[in-house]
Design a protein that fits this description.
mainly alpha; 12 helices
């Protein structure tokens, strides 16, 4: 029976059964809220939407209710809430994903521990070459230092600078040799690192056999970097030498001006050197692992650092600070004893003993710090490729294939060639398909 308003017992008041949507009777929603449902008494009117609301479309392209047992990504069973993502694949010294600072430092330590003979043996030779010039420079500076400690003997300006040149000249020569040696060592250790990423090992002889063909290109990088680093330093040295020769530094005011110019010049040069050190930090890995020439490798390093310069510089600076303190702990006892021999002893034997002690301390310190610097540079190179080229997809695909085969094939070394980057095979990001990022046909069966 109608109540005169066009409604029926099955139609809520205010809704006409004859009116089409959006004015007709509301349709039952296919979605129900989770939780305990309250039973509706038989014949009770259901609450409909307000008159101005649009009822749902009769046909939905997708189901509004998830299938039974559906669990959203990143969540555990019902009632357990979010769960962490599964860990990244880690067949070797690093996880195969973009690396954090802890991953880089931990991977460097694992690199040294996994190949101690190859890494520390090569580093010991490199450290000895870098420590000898410091010891020789200290040996020649002991006479000047003993004279400066005697208050009854006047010291001229040129004598003061002779002592500084003898003391710090050997240090600069050692830094130059260390730069060359560390660059070459980085190239050799990068070859070991390229295998250690997949859990493989390599002897020093095998690493040298694989790297020696790239030594001319590595020396090319060293030569270009030497020009970049030495030109402003030689200009500063020329200015200081001109002031000394002209006699402008003989007066007290001239000496103060000379010291100020020296300090300001060294501070500016430090910023200059750090900038180019960060920009070309990946040149050696690009030469060894990608087979590039010197100029192309430096251009490649500049490109990889672009977009993440401050992070690369910060990690390199932090590494340098850590290396400095680590080397100091090992070198300080030998340096103190050697300096006492050199300053207090009057014979040539005491001076030679002092030089030997200083060389031993420097060798021990550098034997651990050189591979640490080289390892950090190599892992930073891998990190930048993973971040900018989705190279982690290539490494993951290769690691899965190697795990299937049960061993690390030597052809894994060729994966570092830029033609195998995911970005060069059509992938646009780290979320692409690994199968399309890197071919696995290069692995031996």
């Amino acid at each position: 029976m109608s109540d005169g308003h066009g409604s029926t017992p099955e139609t809520p008041p205010g809704w006409a059964a004859e009116q089409p949507p959006p004015y007709g009777a509301p349709q039952a929603s296919p979605w129900t809220a989770p939780g305990p449902q309250q039973d509706t008494p038989q014949g009770a009117a259901q609450q409909g939407p307000p008159p101005h609301a649009r009822p749902p479309y009769p046909q939905q392209p997708y189901s509004q209710q998830p299938p039974p047992g559906y669990v959203p990504p990143g969540y555990g069973p019902p009632g357990y809430g979010p769960m962490p993502h599964p860990p990244a694949l880690r067949p070797g010294i690093i996880p195969l994903r973009p690396l954090g600072l802890g991953d880089i430092l931990d991977g460097t330590i694992k690199l040294i521990r996994s190949n101690p003979k190859a890494v520390l043996g090569l580093s010991a030779v490199a450290a000895l070459l870098g420590a000898v010039p410091v010891a020789v420079g200290q040996m020649f500076s002991f006479d000047s230092l003993r004279a400066s400690l005697d208050p009854s003997t006047p010291v001229a300006t040129y004598q003061m600078y002779d002592g500084l040149v003898a003391q710090y000249g050997g240090l600069f020569v050692s830094m130059a040799i260390s730069f060359v040696v560390v660059t070459l060592l980085t190239g050799v250790l990068t070859r070991i690192l390229g295998r250690a990423v997949f859990g493989g090992t390599m002897t020093a002889g095998e690493a040298w056999q694989l790297t020696r063909g790239r030594v001319p290109a590595l020396f090319g990088v060293v030569g270009l970097m030497a020009v970049i680093m030495l030109v402003p330093l030689l200009a500063l040295g020329g200015i200081i030498a001109a002031l000394i020769v002209s006699g402008a530094a003989e007066s007290s005011g001239g000496q103060a001006a000379l010291v100020a110019i020296t300090l300001v010049g060294l501070v500016l040069y430090l910023g200059y050197a750090l900038f180019f050190k960060a920009r070309f930090a990946f040149a050696a890995p690009a030469v060894v692992l990608e087979g590039r020439g010197p100029i192309d490798a430096m251009r490649r390093s500049w490109h990889l650092v672009t977009g993440d310069f401050w992070r690369v510089l910060g990690i390199l600076l932090l590494t340098s600070v850590m290396v400095f303190f680590l080397a100091g702990i090992l070198e300080i006892p030998f340096s103190i004893i050697g300096s006492l021999f050199g300053l207090l002893g009057e014979s040539s034997g005491a001076t030679i003993a002092a030089a030997v002690l200083i060389a031993v301390g420097g060798t021990l310190g550098a034997m651990l710090t050189y591979p640490f610097e080289a390892g950090v540079a190599g892992l930073l190179y891998a990190d930048r490729r993973m971040r900018s080229e989705a190279f982690d997809l290539v490494l993951q695909t290769a690691a899965i294939e190697q795990q299937r085969q049960g061993w690390v094939h030597a052809s894994a070394d060729e994966l570092w060639h830029p033609s195998n980057s995911a970005s060069s095979t059509g992938s646009t990001g780290s979320t692409g398909s690994p199968e399309s990022a890197s071919p696995t046909s290069s692995f031996g069966s």
